[in-house]
Amino acid sequence: MIKERADQPAVPNHSPVIKPIAAPMILPSSDRARRRRTLESGAVFGAQLLIALLILAGMYVLNAVGGNLVMPNPNDIVQESLVMWSDGTMLRGLGESLTVITLGFLLSATTGIVLGVLLGGFRVLGRVLDPFVNAMNSTPGAAFIPLIIVWFGLYTEAKVVVVWNAAFFPILINTTAGIASANKDLVEMARAFGAKRATLFWKVMVPDALPSILSGLRIGAAICTVGTVIAELTMAQSGLGGLLAAAGNRFQMDRYFAVVIVLMALGTLITAMLRLAERRIGRWRVSLADGR
């Protein structure tokens, strides 16, 4: 056996060096959901901004093609809005309309929720009154305006009744459906522990039906804005509806669109506030839209 000499250079080892492969980084499910919501929110905001820019560009095009009577210049709308806010015209109209909206919504919410709890909680009562509720709901609200004028006059009281009539039925129907479809297991468990009828309503059925009730309130609040404008157009003209009618009769389209923008912003703000309240109060629900 031949021994290697001590001064003989060592033969280099050309065998490949295998490095460990780093495992891919896996984010927790909460982080992935948060990133997905962030990307989705950015995409939604970008799409909304694009649509707004397209609408603005369309207004400029219509103004250039058809003139101010067809579509006022957006610059004129902004200028007229500044004038109406600075001289107090828009603020007075907004205050009058908000008074009617607030009173009508509170009245419709109170009566709609109370009657909805009764109709949904008492099955026989619900069956008796169901055809009458459907008949009133299917009748256009404008059909009752002459009767409301005869009974309540032309001013705030009559306008509040018109708004109540418009928003009452969506709140009533959603509340009734939510109460009637309450969790049967919870109801039977409460009955087994000796819960009284009032306790069963307010401690079990109403909390379980709260998402449906809040949805009805959100729909009713949006309808309140429409009902207020209809009331202000058909009765003593005041508020934002009165400003809308006055500008339309004089073909002051820049002033007309300035009022329309305020009405759109008001309806959007009311709906957003109620949607936020719906998310806060109904926190226990699994929201597929939020990815949770």
Automatic annotation (TrEMBL):
PROSITE patterns for this protein: ABC_TM1 (PS50928)
Family the entry assigns: Belongs to the binding-protein-dependent transport system permease family.
Domain ABC transmembrane type-1: 94-274
Membrane topology summary: Multi-pass membrane protein
Record PANTHER family: ABC TRANSPORTER PERMEASE PROTEIN MJ0413-RELATED, ALKANE SULFONATE ABC TRANSPORTER-RELATED, MEMBRANE SUBUNIT
Top-rank taxon, per record: Bacteria
Name by which UniProt lists this protein: ABC transporter permease
Membrane-crossing residue ranges in chain numbering: 42-62, 98-120, 132-155, 161-182, 213-236, 256-277
InterPro entries: MetI-like (IPR000515), MetI-like_sf (IPR035906)
Keywords associated with the record: Cell membrane, Membrane, Transmembrane, Transmembrane helix, Transport
Location within or outside the cell: Cell membrane
Main location per the UniProt record: membrane
